[in-house]
Amino acid sequence: MEGSINLEARAETLATSAPVGPGWRIWRRFLRHRLGLAGLAVLGLLYGAILLGPFLAPYPFDLMHREYRHAPPTRIRFVDQEGRFHWRPFVYGLKATRDPITFQFRYEEDPSRIYPLRFFTPGEPYRLFGVIPMRVRLVGLEPGSDGRLFLLGTDRFGRDLWGRILLGGRVTLTVGVLGVVVSTAMGVVMGGLSGYYGGRLDNLIQRLIELLRSFPTIPLWLALSMILPPHWPSHWVYFGVVTVLSLIGWTGLARVVRGQYLALREKEFVLAARALGASDGAIIFRHILPNIASYLIVSATLALPGMILGESTMSFLGLGIKEPMTSWGLLLRDAQSLQALQLYPWLLTPGLFIVAAVLAFNFVGDAIRDAFDPYAIQ
């Protein structure tokens, strides 16, 4: 008797509760994926940092401190040499000397010069988001002081590495997104045409895919990058790198999309649309494409790490972004020699940002894949 009462109460609760839509179920599954949420938080921090780059960097991206080449990261302190605690963080002055044997710059802290850190301090003018004129920077030293604040050290030209990483992140993270958008569009179009029409067109597209996939990746990058004229301005080279990555990255998706179209083109809803006089374009993009949209979202998210690694590899090898533009891969070129790794280990910092971005995208991609899984446990 008691069991029947419980069953009736549960049935009444289910009947009166509001129905949960598929979108809400997907979002609820995503929220249960802790690594996915952590990756989303990391990506939010990275993209927020590159958007606010000039505000977060103490110095302009291209400012050269020629007397501080390869300076180590500045150590921020709260306790001075005499053991006194300071409520306001500070840095010591830097003394740069040349080693008489190696002729390399050596830097020593000068405890006699103390420079307190100041927040929201005026600095060199810049345009936030490329539009809003500003001078305020998040952190810096007293305007006019001879102290230096290098949060992550400097490169071989004396440029602040933290500012260069923020600038390079704009290229690396946006190239990945644009490359995935273009390659996904190409994969959907080519795979859809191949799977829907079949015949000679299918054979031609599949042979083209096999040809592109038969070449080793790096030599193919080298061949395609040689097409980019060396006199092109930086923004043209940027879109050229996106094009090179997209021309290689669409083949795998196109094969999967072809298989999806082959399976769906004989379904009842497609036959009904064809019987009602729908055009091939309407059937391909309005009837079949929405049925594979969830797969495309997951595939695009999981392809982003590969695009980021591809751009970083191209720039590291000198095939992609070049000065005065920069990217995380280009910044890593300064750390490719054993001497640089031994003397200036902070030059590897851009690699840590690449690892963080790739892992974050992988975690988010796994979470989205699990959220869209129709066989997931509710």
Here the CATH topology of the largest domain equals MetI-like fold
Q: Name the helicity range.
A: 55-70%
Q: Let me know the number of strands.
A: 5
The outline comes out as: elongated
Main β-sheet: number of strands, strand sense, barrel status? 3 strands, antiparallel
Strand order of the largest sheet: 1-2-3
Question: How many DSSP H or I helices?
Answer: 15
Strand content: 5-15%
Q: Any key phrases for this structure?
A:
378 residues, alpha+beta, MetI-like fold, 2 domains, three-stranded antiparallel β-sheet, 5 strands, 13% strand, elongated
Helix and strand arrangement:
Layout: H1 2-16, H2 22-31, H3 34-51, H4 53-56, E1 77-79, E2 85-98, E3 105-116, E4 118-128, E5 132-140, H5 161-197, H6 199-214, H7 217-225, H8 234-249, H9 251-264, H10 268-275, H11 280-288, H12 293-316, H13 328-332, H14 338-343, H15 349-372
Antiparallel strand pairs: 1-2, 2-3, 4-5
Helix pairs in contact: 2-15, 3-5, 3-15, 5-6, 5-8, 5-9, 5-12, 6-9, 7-8, 10-11, 12-15
